[in-house]
Amino acid sequence: MKPHLLLYIVLLINVGLIPAQIFDVETIEFSGDDSKRINLVILSEGYQTSELSQFITDATNFTNSMFNQSPLKEYANYFNVYAIKVPSVESGADHPGTSIEPLESSISPTVPIRTVDTYFNATYDAFGKHRLLYYEIDGNSANNTEAIINTVLANNFPTYDQALILVNSSEYGGSGGKFPMTYSGFWGANVAVHELGHSLFNLKDEYYPGDDLAGEAINMTQETDQNLIKWKNWLNTNGIGIYQYTCDTGNCADWYKPHQNCIMELIDKPFCSVCKEGIIEKIHSLVSPIDSYTPISNTVSTSSFPINFNLNLIKPIPNTLESSWSLNAANFASNVDDISILETDLNVGINTLTVVITDNTTLLKVTNHETIHLYTVTWTINHSSLGVNDIESDINNLSITMFPNPANTIANLKIESEKDAQLKVDITSLDGKKVKTVSLSNYATQQVDISNLSEGIYMANFYANNVLVASKKLIKQ
User: Fold this and answer.
1) What are the tens digits of pLDDT across the range 106-146?
2) By 3-state DSSP, what share of the chain in percent is helix, strand and coil, each rounded to 5?
3) In what residue span(s) does the Secretion system C-terminal sorting domain sit (predicted)?
4) Residue 40's closest CA among 75, 89, 92, 91?
């Protein structure tokens, strides 16, 4: 669940001394309830009041372009996009001419040195790099401007998840960080996607970013063992390998990336498979695919059957969500959004109906991936000879982690559940024989000794409150 309330409180504390300014907010793309979507907010920079209609056109074109790129294209229904029309006194961005880099004339032609009066103080040549378009010239100067950005967001759209600043300029430039920036010219939408890769999805550059920005990440590592590398499930597929960074200085030879033609390196390329998977997993961690469901608690008290249960899901395009329904721990239905319960389906007393939602997209290597996300709705049905006395419902988000895989002596297992639940895992052989049962504590990694098991393939079946919620293949070496 997204921490909107906490975010709003923090923003109010941080910007309490800055005068409030209210600007027009326009909806660019609306998929559903803000509390159940990732809210991307685009701020105008260097657009005068007379140019704000052009800003909306630019923001709309940017949105269309961004959500035409995989995997954002497949998961567009998980996003809302809004634009805040912040007017500047003058158009464009500063060009102080202080870059210490040689000018790349094919991308960034010579421009006149100029200073313009804009709301967020956008400038090229930030941190001595010509194409680095940033709010202020360096990190120290940016502190006050960042407070201004926070104020605009707190006063106009406090429940944002990610803000992007769109600068009215035809000169190539952009930056990542807390509030990524991009220019409005030809490659601007691609720059925005690249920078959002950093800011929202925790991806690293796949050109060497420098020793100060190098670090272990979804798509960057110092590991070279193909059995241990974090993208091992993708090796030798779709061009994924273990590629050494190249450069003339620094420690780039110590670092490796998964691909040689990813947008995190080359702005005119798509995301590689490893980055796509990382983006989807971040989406799953922020937003549940369960938009709503019925019945909710205390809305049904009837002796009339059948009783209908319904899911309203946020579906990828094309839909890759799968559902598994169980009644009193027995399989009931699969891959449907609606079911009906007859009186003959129920026991006298308390009955439990659970549906588990998972995403079976081929953009994830779920079978062998270290962590999977799943989402459940559970209805507790109190049934007597007079009918259904009441129905209570509860929703839960879970993630399940198992590593290493393959394993030799120890397998590490972990379940993270938003709600209290009785958690366990059964390890079974392929012929269905249960060889080990382990109770799990929420949010705690449990080391499971598998040294006495024969080499081969096993299934790890994870249960929450005695309901099977996931099965993962475990390879014993």
Assistant:
1) 445 566 789 999 999 999 999 888 899 999 888 777 778 99
2) 20, 35, 45
3) 402-475
4) 75
- Note whether 440 and 414 are within 8 A (CB): yes
Superfamily of domain 288-476: Macroglobulin (MG2) domain (2.60.40.1930)
| Joined tokens for residue 89 | 């006194």
**Residue 198 half-sphere exposure toward CB, CA atoms < 13 A:** 25
Which candidate, 312, 300, 394, places its Cα nearest to that of 353?
Answer: 394
Q: What's the CA gap between 180 and 85, in Å, rounded?
A: 17
Tens of pLDDT, residue by residue over 267-303, are 999 999 999 999 999 999 999 999 999 998 876 655 6
Q: Say if residues 32 and 314 touch (Cβ distance below 8 Å).
A: yes
What length does the chain have? 477
Domain ranges across the chain: 24-201, 203-287, 288-476
Name the residue with tokens 């080990």: 436
HSE-CB of 340 using CA atoms within 13 angstroms: 4
Q: Cα(332)–Cα(251) distance, rounded to whole angstroms?
A: 56
CATH code linked to domain 24-201: 3.40.390.10
